[in-house]
From TrEMBL:
Position of the signal peptide: none
Source organism, top-level taxon: Bacteria
Membrane-traversing stretches: none
Organism: Pollutimonas thiosulfatoxidans
MF GO annotations: acyltransferase activity; hydrolase activity, acting on carbon-nitrogen (but not peptide) bonds, in linear amides
Protein's name according to its UniProt entry: Acyltransferase
Length: 272
């Protein structure tokens, strides 16, 4: 597509999702509406925005076939209602294994048409003392390839949470203007690494990074780090919300991308 010349406003919605699907959809809808009224043209939801269950297997109870189901209907309707590009955090889609789902990001255009899908590749595993997580118990990894789509701000790369630790995924996206990272970083790992990793991905790819996160104490006892933010190609934080429901918002400025890439042409200097 043509190189964009105008600023394009984006927002990262932050939630503290519960075990109640309908409550989560209602609260996400309210935040989408507020961000849209603040001028956001592209809005990203966090990972697990539709459910933070008490058990890993709870995701299986709300899984959907691609193209149908209340979560996908909600996302399409929100995109149409507000005439926005909507990156639908993640939702559980069916696999050929009845005991596991794909943790999938679906993207909708302003007409409510689903235009892109990315299934999480890297599955989170962590163990320290009594704190333990293993996403592979209930999630099947997606196909090993980078996914992008075109929006008015240029090429947009898709990733999910734990993917953030694997820079080769982002290099494989090629020339992109925006990376989106819906996440549910734990408080432990987020407080140590979240901002550092996000700013690094922005700096090394000389693009904007929009990270929508879960941020607070959940019914299931899990505590997520939050700090949803927009970062510019120099690694500066444009906007951030620390904890609780809300959103971070700011502009994708093509002139800023060009300025950074011209002054420090690292992408042209790559040898591998």
């Amino acid at each position: 597509m043509d190189v964009p010349t105008n600023k394009f406003r984006v927002a990262a919605v932050q939630t503290v999702s519960s075990t109640d699907l309908q409550r989560n959809l209602r609260e996400a809808g309210e935040l989408i509406g507020k961000a849209a009224r603040a001028g956001a043209q592209l809005i990203a939801l966090p990972e697990y925005f539709c459910l933070m269950g008490r058990h890993d297997q709870d995701k299986l109870l709300i899984k959907e076939e691609l193209g149908s189901g209340p979560i996908q209907e909600f996302l399409a309707e929100q995109a149409r209602r507000h005439a926005i590009w909507l990156v639908g955090g993640t939702l559980p889609l069916t696999t050929d294994d009845a005991q596991r789902i794909y943790n999938a990001t679906l993207v909708y255009d302003p007409a409510g048409k689903q235009i892109a899908r990315y299934d999480k590749i890297h599955l989170f595993g962590f163990r320290r003392g009594e704190e333990s997580y293993d996403e592979s118990v209930s999630i099947k990894a997606g196909t090993l390839n980078a996914k992008t789509f075109d929006a008015p701000c240029g090429a947009v790369g898709l990733s999910i949470c734990y993917d953030l630790r694997f820079p080769e995924l982002y290099r494989a996206m090629g020339d992109i203007n925006l990376i989106i990272v819906p996440s549910a970083f734990t408080y432990t790992t987020g407080s140590a690494h979240w901002e550092l990793l996000l700013r690094t991905r922005a700096i090394e790819n000389q693009c904007y990074v929009l990270a929508a996160a879960q941020g607070g104490k959940h019914e299931n006892g899990r505590r997520t780090w939050g700090h949803s933010m927009l970062i510019d190609p120099w690694g500066d934080i444009v906007d951030c919300i620390a904890e609780g429901p809300g959103f971070a918002i700011g502009d994708i400025n093509p002139e800023r991308i060009s300025e950074v890439r011209a002054s420090l042409p690292a992408l042209k200097h790559r040898t591998m």
